[in-house]
TrEMBL record, chain A:
The lineage of its organism: Bacteria, Bacillati, Actinomycetota, Actinomycetes, Kitasatosporales. It catalyses: carbamoyl phosphate + L-aspartate = N-carbamoyl-L-aspartate + phosphate + H(+). It comes from the Bacteria. Residues 3-147 form the Aspartate/ornithine carbamoyltransferase carbamoyl-P binding domain. Gene3D superfamilies: Aspartate/ornithine carbamoyltransferase. Catalyzes the condensation of carbamoyl phosphate and aspartate to form carbamoyl aspartate and inorganic phosphate, the committed step in the de novo pyrimidine nucleotide biosynthesis pathway. Residues 163-309 form the Aspartate/ornithine carbamoyltransferase Asp/Orn-binding domain. Heterododecamer (2C3:3R2) of six catalytic PyrB chains organized as two trimers (C3), and six regulatory PyrI chains organized as three dimers (R2). HAMAP family: Asp_carb_tr (MF_00001). Belongs to the aspartate/ornithine carbamoyltransferase superfamily. ATCase family. Its EC number is 2.1.3.2. It comes from Streptomyces tanashiensis. L-aspartate binds at residues 83, 176, 230. This is Aspartate carbamoyltransferase.
Automatic annotation (TrEMBL), chain B:
Binds 2 Zn(2+) ions per subunit. Signal peptide: none annotated. The keyword Hydrolase applies. Its cofactor is Zn(2+). The lineage of its organism: Bacteria, Bacillati, Actinomycetota, Actinomycetes, Kitasatosporales. Pathway: Pyrimidine metabolism; UMP biosynthesis via de novo pathway; (S)-dihydroorotate from bicarbonate: step 3/3. Belongs to the metallo-dependent hydrolases superfamily. DHOase family. Class I DHOase subfamily. Zn(2+) 1 binds at residues 56, 58, 150, 303. The gene is pyrC. Its EC number is 3.5.2.3. This is Dihydroorotase. Zn(2+) 2 binds at residues 150, 177, 230. PROSITE patterns: DIHYDROOROTASE_2. It comes from Streptomyces tanashiensis. Catalyzes the reversible cyclization of carbamoyl aspartate to dihydroorotate.
Length: 326, 428
């Protein structure tokens, strides 16, 4: 296993499958009355959040606490950072306080990479989303959700997503979720199609290991999973598309469109959803929509990542049993 | 008066000759010259060039003396073989008045390491709205002939047209930083395959090319000459080539880093590679080299842009744009142009001394290496191989993209009007 988790592109197929399998073990912990493992007892993890993100921060925090780590939450707003302190000084300050790992969310693409590779600190770095670059634990939880739904909870162990057809719809240009998912899903053997208006597809996409389509309706019947990406309100005044309504008509997922998908196909969304924009309430609240599952799976996957990066080589299962025997 | 005899130097890469300097001028060029009363420098087959001229240097003074001063910048220039530099106007305060350009000019005189020719801003405060007093800057002691808002584009077509027209009255030239501002909002690197992967805001080639296309047409329309700063794309090359074929009076420069480095380096997220215009692709690099060789691009200019350590020791988006370049320019040109067979040393002299001096009307610089000319000379050892160590720089800043990289060639001696500013590779 690697020392840091910066990009989904850094994971091999075996790394990724190992994380997903470990996450299944972790998920069992959540079904118990006492949702806690002693694995990271005495270790301190800092959640260093330079960008507001309640759900990702809480998900990491829950994962860390279930592994018995001590958790420090650092939000840039109102801190020394807002007074002009640099990323380097902030990180070194935290490390001097004895932090064993840093989970970082930053608005600048590449900030976690810089933190991990510039010699500023020694601690492992986990990318919790950087700019429009990567969000690897999101891609892992999405893959985990797909494997459970499309392959099976037990049947999926040791398996990848070979041959599954995954469609990502929306603002690909500004989406770290899209980049991470394209990388990871490709590694896991899935066939990925991006659907977006041409204005929201990056120049240079031609080298990505996926197809690109501008026509959602033609792609839906050939999809095992459709992931809707959030369209941020600020895009609406920047000529990426004429109006919110036109975007919805062409790229939004409503009940009528969902009916074009195969019976078994699922609808995913990384949240937070903009209901009525990229997804209607009918779809969001349907059984095929995995949004709430994705949130639960996020905790399991982040536990698996933290465990594998920090917990050494013992298997997760043996720890589980130790806890049970007490 | 002191005499210096440079013995056995290949003048512009030609046959080995002796060059006798007497006082401020070249007294004699020939073979077997008498060394009587002269300090002898054994060139031993090194290349003798006219002192290099940089049409695009940021000396940062006044305002950002933490990154460079006129003194440290001119010491860096001398180390790199330069005898004249043109100092860009984007200082604090901006060099948009006779007072500021005279201050920079005077500081250059006092430094003694190389001549400093201030560039004046085209518009007040580089804001692109109102012409600065171009005539007053020209008439000042600094005698400004090159005007540029470099760092910012003169994007208003009417302002650009008026500036091009106005400076004709005194033989001035506008040097355009070609960057369409709307197309480059939030731009962090070249827009393409690498930016798509890295999730960094794209700086599309068309933002440069569209401004160059507009400006060569404006120059044609009003019968003015225009100079294009740091041309960086294959498409820009095509436009300038077309313009020259039409007889439009356009000149263009390329930086050493755009001749060598590509946007693949940005994958490191190391801001030492962050520069404006950004590093482009291999295809662009090859087109720029070819254009410099065939004369479509007239000159090499460094765009030496010093920044303090903290402005680069951070995440990419927060970092300043720019690279130092004075002390590595000739080595990069040797590697990319001479050792590839694209240019001989006479071609290097044309592009790094004669032509920039002509474009900027730098008196006494870019002159032939012959008797009676000012002794502004640079002696280069092309056989030298060394690894770039920023700690060796004379510049106050260290933001070089070449740290740890082996580059060929070394300036062993630089002479400014007969006075050695560099001796045996060290500042005198």
């Amino acid at each position: 296993m690697m020392r840091h988790l910066i990009s989904a592109a850094d994971l091999t197929r075996d790394d990724a499958v190992q994380i997903l399998d470990t996450a299944e073990e972790m998920a069992r912990v959540a079904d118990r009355p006492i949702k806690k493992l002693p694995t990271l007892r005495g270790r301190t993890i800092c959640n260093l959040f330079f960008e507001d993100s309640t759900r990702t921060r809480i998900s990491f925090e829950a994962a860390e606490k279930r592994l018995s780590a001590d958790v420090i939450n650092f939000a840039a707003k109102g801190s020394s950072v807002s007074k002009g302190e640099s990323l380097k000084d902030t990180a070194q300050t935290l490390e001097a306080m004895g932090v064993d790992a840093v989970v970082i969310r930053h608005g600048a693409s590449g900030a976690p990479y810089r933190l991990a590779t510039s010699g500023w600190i020694d601690a492992p770095v986990i990318n919790a989303g950087d700019g429009t670059h990567q969000h690897p634990t999101q891609a892992l939880l999405d893959a985990f959700t797909m494997r459970r739904r499309l392959v099976g909870r037990d049947a999926g162990l040791g398996q990848d997503l070979a041959g599954k057809r995954i469609t990502l719809v929306g603002d690909v240009l500004h989406s770290r979720v899209a980049r991470s998912n394209v990388d990871l899903l490709h590694t896991l053997g899935a066939e990925v199609t991006l659907v977006a208006p041409p204005t929201l597809v990056p120049v240079g996409v031609e080298t990505w290991p996926c197809d690109v389509s501008y026509d959602l309706d033609s792609v839906l019947p050939k999809s095992d999973a459709v992931m809707m990406l959030r369209v941020q309100r600020e895009r609406m005044n920047a000529a990426f598309f004429p109006t919110e309504r036109e975007y919805s008509r062409r790229y939004g997922l409503d009940g009528e469109r969902m009916a074009k998908m195969p019976e078994h196909a699922i609808v995913m969304h990384p949240g937070p959803m903009v209901r009525g924009m990229e997804i209607t309430a009918e779809v969001a609240d349907s059984d095929r929509c995995t949004v709430v599952e994705q949130v639960a799976n996020g905790v399991s996957v982040r536990m698996a990542v933290l465990y594998l990066l920090l917990g050494g080589n013992e298997s997760a299962v043996s720890h589980t049993r130790t806890e049970e025997s007490k | 008066m002191s005499k210096i005899l440079i013995r056995g130097a290949k003048v512009l890469g030609g046959e080995a000759q002796d060059v006798l300097i007497d006082g401020e001028t070249i007294a004699e060029v020939g073979t077997g010259l008498s060394a009587e009363g002269a300090t002898v420098i054994e060139a031993d087959g090194q290349i003798l060039l006219p002192g290099l001229v940089d049409l695009h240097t940021h000396l940062r003074e006044p305002g950002r003396e933490d990154s460079e001063t006129v003194l440290t910048g001119t010491r860096a220039a001398a180390s790199g073989g330069y005898t004249a530099v043109f100092a860009m106007a984007n200082t604090h305060p901006v060099a948009d008045t006779a007072g500021v350009v005279e201050q920079v000019w005077r500081l250059g005189k006092e430094s003694g390491y190389c001549d400093v020719q201030p560039i004046g801003a085209v518009t007040v405060g580089l804001e692109g709205k109102k012409l600065a007093e171009l005539g007053a800057m020209h008439d000042s002691a600094a005698g400004v002939t090159v005007f540029s808002d470099d760092g910012k584009c003169v994007d208003d077509a009417v302002i650009m047209r008026r500036a091009l027209e106005y400076v004709k009255a005194f033989g001035g030239v506008v040097a355009q930083h070609a960057q369409e501002p709307r197309l480059t909002e939030g731009a962090q690197m070249n827009e393409g395959i690498v930016s798509a992967e890295l999730g960094l805001g794209g700086w599309p080639a068309v933002a440069e090319e569209s401004i160059i296309a507009r400006d060569v047409l404006l120059a044609e329309h009003v019968g003015s000459r225009v100079h294009i700063c740091h041309l960086s794309t294959a498409g820009s090359v095509e436009i300038v080539r077309w313009a020259k074929s039409r007889g439009i009076d356009v000149t263009a420069e390329v930086t050493p880093h755009h001749l060598l480095l590509t946007d693949e380096l940005v994958r490191s997220y190391n801001p030492v590679y962050k520069v404006n215009p950004p590093l482009r692709t291999e295809k662009d690099v090859l087109a720029l080299r070819e254009a410099l060789a065939d004369g479509t691009i007239d000159i090499v200019a460094t765009d030496h842009a010093p920044h303090p350590h903290e402005d680069k020791d951070c995440e990419w988006a927060a970092a300043a744009m720019g690279m130092v370049g004075l002390e590595t320019a000739l080595s990069v040109v040797q590697q990319t142009m001479v050792e590839t067979g694209l240019l001989d040393w006479a071609g290097v002299a044309e592009r790094m001394s004669f032509a920039p001096a002509r474009i900027g009307a730098a008196d006494g610089h870019g002159r032939p290496v012959s008797a009676g000319e000012p002794a502004n000379l640079t002696l280069v050892d092309p056989a030298y191989r060394g690894v770039v160590d920023p700690a060796d720089f004379a510049s106050r800043s260290r933001n070089t993209p070449y740290e740890g990289r082996e580059l060929p060639g070394r300036v062993t001696h630089t002479f400014l009007r007969g006075r050695a500013t560099v001796v045996d590779g060290k500042l005198a």
